[in-house]
Design goal:
The protein has two helices and six strands; from the N terminus they run αβββββαβ. The protein has 85 residues and is an alpha+beta fold. The strands form two sheets. It has a four-stranded mixed β-sheet. The N and C termini lie far apart (36 Å).
Length: 85
């Protein structure tokens, strides 16, 4: 069996990063959603009506990279994320 299709080089920027669980908020002015860094599920607040999830894991040091709950579960051990409050 080959490598997981969701893995596209994220190890260069995400191994060992601090993550926290949070409701989605934009990090850039005018942003209305982000995507999971792995599967591209849409992450947004409940007002959009088309988001896959409204709460996910985000990099705690810059609040910019989002990871959906499913991908978090699948890759937490592999990427050795540090969970913070």
């Amino acid at each position: 069996m080959g490598e997981d299709w969701r893995l596209t080089g994220q190890e260069f920027s995400l191994v060992g990063r601090p993550l926290r669980r949070a409701r989605w908020v934009p990090y850039r002015l005018g942003g209305d959603h982000d995507h999971c860094e792995f599967c591209w599920a849409e992450i947004s607040d409940d007002r959009t009506g088309h988001a896959d999830v409204a709460e996910a894991w985000v990099t705690a040091d810059d609040n910019r990279t989002w990871i959906c709950p499913s991908c978090f579960d699948d890759f937490c051990a592999r990427f050795r994320w540090v969970i913070v409050d």
